[in-house]
Amino acid sequence: MNLEVTRSLDVSAKGLRPRSRLLCAPGGGAAAFVLRAGDEATIIDPEGRQIGQLFVASDRPVLSSHFADAATLTFGGDECVTACGADAELARAFLAARADAELLETTLLFGRESVAGASVRFKAPADMRCLLAAPGDRMRPDEQDAPTELRINIQSPHDRAAALPPPLATPRLDLRVKAATASGYRVAAGEYIQIIDVEGRQCSDFLAFDSKALADGRELAIDPTTTRTLMGSATPGPGLYSKYFDQDMGPLVEVVRDTVGRHDTFMLACNSKYYDDMGYPGHGNCTDNFNAALAAFGVRPRRGWPAVNFFYNTFVSHDNSIGMDEPWSRPGDYVLLRALTDLVCASSSCADDIDPANGWAPTDIHVRVYDAASNFSKGIAHRMTPDAPPKLTRESGFHSRTSALTRGFIEYRGFWMPQCFAAAGPVAEYWACRERAALMDLSALRKFEITGPDAEALLQSAVTRNIRKLAVGQVVYTALCYEHGGMIDDGTVFRLGENNFRLVCGDDYCGVWLRQLAAEQGLRAWVKSSTDQLHNVALQGPRSRDILREVLATPPHQPSIDELKWFRFTIGKIANAPVLVSRTGYTGELGYEIWCHPDSGPKVWDAIVAAGEPYGLAPFGFAALDMVRIEAGLIFAHFEFCDQTDPFEAGIGFSVPAEKLESYVGSEALARRRAHPVRQLVGLDIAGNEHVGHGDPVHVGRAQVGVVTSATRSPKLAKTIALARLDMAYAAIGTPVEIGKLDGQQKRLKATVTRFPHYNPDKSRVRA
C-alpha cells in the first residue's frame, strides 16, 4: 500500500473541465461514492491516527491489485454495517443496491500511527461502488480517542456532469441551465429548490412569482428592497430571518441551506444597457434570457429584472460605491430554498464574461427541485480551510432541550445557539446569572485532543503560557499567536496526563496550525478534533456550586465539587452519564463547565435543571452572555482581538508571562511589543444612555485615538459601559474621551476611562 503525505488538494481551475470532487467520511461514520473506470481516488487522513475501512462492490476483483491485505466478503454485511457506526443506514443502502454479479471487497487503510495528511491513491480499473468508513466509538469526556474525518478526492477524466454533488433526495426536477442561458420552471408550495454552482465562481440570478397572482394578471415577484427592509439584512440566510418577500410583503421562499453566504440583492440582473455602456452592444444578458424563458408563463418582458443574484459577490465601499469581484462559490456549492406558496421560477447562468462577476468565464448552473415531503436540516456552510469540504450548521447535544424553550437561535461558528429564551428575555437571564444561577449551551467551542510523546513540546512552542508548569488536573488560559505577535485565538489548555492535553478555543484553524507546527518541528504529536464528541454547558452564578453538589458524583481519587479549585477539573457522572467538570467560565461569576458526549446532553441538562429549580436556575442565551462578559472584561474574537492585535492590546497581557524563557511562535515579537506598547484595552464609562457599539471611534478633540470594541447597557451598574482599545497616551484611568457618532465629528458622547474590568475587578466572586 502506497502511503503519501498530501499537503494540498488538486481543485480544478475556473473555465477548465472539473478534475476533482471532494467528499468527506465523518469520524464514526461513512461516505458512499461511485468511481468510473479511469477515475483516480485519493483517500486522506487529515488529522492522523484514523483507521479507514474501504468497501468496494464491482463485477470483478478491483482492490487486490492495489492492496495486499484486500479481502473478499459475503454480502451479509455485518462487518460493513459495524464499521460505518453512525451511518449504519448508509451501509445497509449500499449493500441493498447490490447487483447479482457484484463482488464485495474490503481493505483497511492507515492506522494508529499514521501522520496527519497521510494518503492512499489508486486508479479504478473498472466501474465500482464504494463505501469508506472512518470507524470509532463515542469518546468519553476524560478520554481522547475521538474518531476523525477522512476525505476522498476524486479526479475524473469523464464529462463534467460527474462534478455535480449527489442529490439531497430524489429530485422531482433535474434541470441543467447551460452557461449564459436562463430557464423557467414551476414549483409547488412546500417543495425545495436547490441552485447549484457546478464549476464554481458563477452567478445565478433567481426570480420567483406568486403563481396564483400571476394567473390573476398580477406579477407579484421577489422584491429585494422589501426583503432587505423586513429581514433587516442585505441577504436573508438560514435561521429566523430567512425569507424573501414580494412587493406586497408576502413571503415567497425561505432559505434553508447556504454553502456560500455571499450573494447580492442590490443590483439588477445584467441587461443590455450595461453591456451597451461598456462597449459590447448586442451582448447576451440575463434580462433578455429571463424575458424569453418567462414568456410561456405569461410574464411581461422588462428592460431590467430586480433579482436575487445568488453567488454574485458585491460590496459597498467606504466611498458608498458598490463594487464586485469573483464569487466566493466553489464547485458544487449551493443554496437550498423552500417554496412558501405555488411559484413560477426562473434561474439563469449569468452571461457576463467582461469582468470578474463570473470569474471571466460563464459556466453551467444546475437546479434540482425536491418533493415537499423531504426533510432537510437548516444550515450555513463552514470550511476550516479553503480546500476543506463544507460543513453545515449542526445542533448540539442540548438542542432538544433549548429548542423547546425558544425559537431565537443564531448561527454561531457552525452551531445553532440560543440568542435568548422566550419566557424571560436577556435582562432576566442576566440577573439570574448575577444573583442565582444560569445554564448555557457553549458546545460551539472547538476542542482538540493533543497527544503523543512530544505533546508538551508542541504546546510549549505554540502558546504563550508555560505549559511545563501545568499539573495534571489543571487548566490554564492562554493566547496563540502568529510570528508577528498578532493573535490566532485565545483558549484554555487542560492537562489530562503526562503527554495528554486538550485545547478548548474558538477557531477550527487552531488544529490546522498546530498540525503544521508539529510537522515543521518533526514532533511526534497528534492534534485530533473532538468538537463533535464533546459538547458542554456552562453553569454560572453564585448558586452553581450548590446545584452541582446535588447531581455530580465523583470517585474517591477525584476532587469533589466542594474541593474543586479555580481553573481545575474533576471527572465524574451526572445522571449516570460520564462528565468532566471544570471550574471555568465566561461570566465573572463562580461557575463551572460540564463536558459530556452529545448523546448524554439531554439527560445531563435535565438533571441540572431539576436540581437547579429550588435555586432559581434559568436558561441563558448569547445576548445575556454579552452583557456579563463585557462587565467582567472578558474578550471576544473579532471584537477585542484579531490577527492585527497582540495579547497586550487585547487586555490579556497576563497570559504572556515574561518568565517563560523558551522561545515559542511570536515570542520575539511579543517581547518587543511588551517593551514598547502602543495601544491598551481599557474600560469606558459612557455618559447618558445613547447606543454605543463595536467599531465606534473614540476621539480626543478632532483626532481619533481609539475604537470601541464592545459595549452594553449594564443592568448591575445602571449605565452604559464599553471596552475600547486606545492609544497609550490616553489610556490612564480618569482620562476624558468622546465617542464619535454620525460621521464621528457631528455628534459626540462623553466618556471616561475607568478601572478595568468594570465588574468585580479583583475577581473575588469567581474565586469564591
TrEMBL record:
Domain DUF1989: 177-344
Entry keyword set: Transferase
GCVT N-terminal domain span: 399-659
GO MF annotations in UniProt: transferase activity
A GO CC term assigned to this protein in UniProt: cytosol
Coiled coil: none
Protein name listed in UniProt: Glycine cleavage T protein (Aminomethyl transferase)
InterPro entries hit by this protein: DUF1989 (IPR018959), GcvT/YgfZ/DmdA (IPR028896), GcvT/YgfZ_C (IPR029043), GcvT_C (IPR013977), GCVT_N (IPR006222), TrmE/GcvT-like (IPR027266)
Annotated organism of origin: Methylocella tundrae
Keyword Transferase on entry: yes
Lineage of source species: Bacteria, Pseudomonadati, Pseudomonadota, Alphaproteobacteria, Hyphomicrobiales
Gene3D superfamilies hit by this protein: Probable tRNA modification gtpase trme, domain 1 (3.30.1360.120)
Stretches assigned to the Aminomethyltransferase C-terminal domain: 679-759
